[in-house]
Amino acid sequence: MQFKALLLTKSPEGQRADWTELSDADLMPGDVTVRITHSTINYKDGLALTGKAPVVRRWPMIPGIDFAGVVTDSSHPDFDTGDEVILNGWGLGETHYGGYAEYARVNGDWLVKRPDVFSAAQAMAIGTAGYTAMLAVMALEDHGVTPDRGPVLVTGAAGGVGSIAVTLLASLGFHVIASTGRQQEADFLKSLGAAEIIDRAELSGPAKPLGKERWAGAVDVAGSHTLANVLSMTRYGGTVAACGLAQGIDLPGTVAPFILRGVTLAGIDSVMCPRPRREAAWQRLARDLDRGKLDALSIARPITDVLSLAPEILAGKVRGRIILEVG
To answer: Looking at the domain assignment, is residue 288 inside a domain?
Structure first.
């Protein structure tokens, strides 16, 4: 079996990416082989493809932290030939060959069966970004954030995690405040269910220890000063789900929100999330995500466009979600 893949290599001259032909002998160990039909591009993929951060930890590497496809061979007890599956994270595209290829061989424990309500393309419109958004919403719920407690904030609202978080929270009855640096996307965000739009500049500067209480909960993709501001303005007993570092990996804040307002900072890790929790997230996505809105915030592109898309996603120029069609 021969197949095409995007291969990242590293030399003293730097990192390069080339479309190349591989065989099944080149695939990594695993008990399930999948013919990949769709993938996507997340912020983390943009970092890997451009080399802006040390995402890749094994060389050479096929990047892509997500894929959807069909099982072609399996010795795993939970999967049979023909099963339609999804993989998000588990080191894919970092330490294990990822989704920017026509085939992958993986550990079956990493796979989730694709919910029937989603096509493979829709599953990748969701991808790690949307699955992470669902984990963040579930964390808010776990800590008692309900619509009657007050508004919820979503930072980076026009991006991948943000756009799906806005859609999910609005469908669950929350008053959603969407923060974005792209004011031209206001109508788009309102179409997803945002009730208010604020400029990210309100949150991107140095934070006060405590600010005016504005929201009961938040989903933050930015980190750094933005997260510090979000925490400082969270209402008493509220929760902030942190799942990104688009502004920075630092957190230049104080303990004041935690010890004076009882605020909770909930960390969201989608990569190594245990299988029962990720299956629950996908079941919730199947139940709560408006598929019409999902289609409206998604666009399909051929997998060969991924290299040109990488700098765009890092620059915040990508709206919503991109589905990459493989093969």
So the answer is: no
CATH of the domain at 161: 3.40.50.720
Q: Which residue range is the domain that position 168 belongs to?
A: 128-267
Handedness of CA 189, 195, 197, 202 (dihedral sign): negative
Rg of the chain taking only CA atoms, in angstroms: 20
Secondary structure E strands in the chain: 2-11, 14-23, 32-40, 66-74, 84-88, 103-106, 112-113, 152-154, 176-180, 196-199, 215-220, 234-242, 264-267, 298-302, 321-325
- State the Cα–Cα distance between residues 77 and 55, nearest whole angstrom: 31
- pLDDT bucket at 155, cuts 50 / 70 / 90: very high
pLDDT digits (tens, 9 = 90+) for 284-310: 999 999 999 999 999 999 999 999 999
Same domain, 143 and 201: yes
Q: Percentage of the chain with pLDDT > 90?
A: 97
Q: Considering the domain boundaries, does residue 64 fall inside one? A: yes
Nearest alpha-carbon partner for 55 in 301, 271, 316, 307: 271
pTM above 0.90, yes or no: yes
Residue 274 resides in a domain: no
How many structural domains compose the chain?
2
Residue labelled with tokens 């769709």: 38
Within this chain, do residues 139 and 248 fall inside the same structural domain, yes or no? yes
24, 80: one domain? yes
pLDDT tens for each residue of 31-60: 999 999 999 999 999 999 999 999 999 999
pLDDT at res. 219: 98
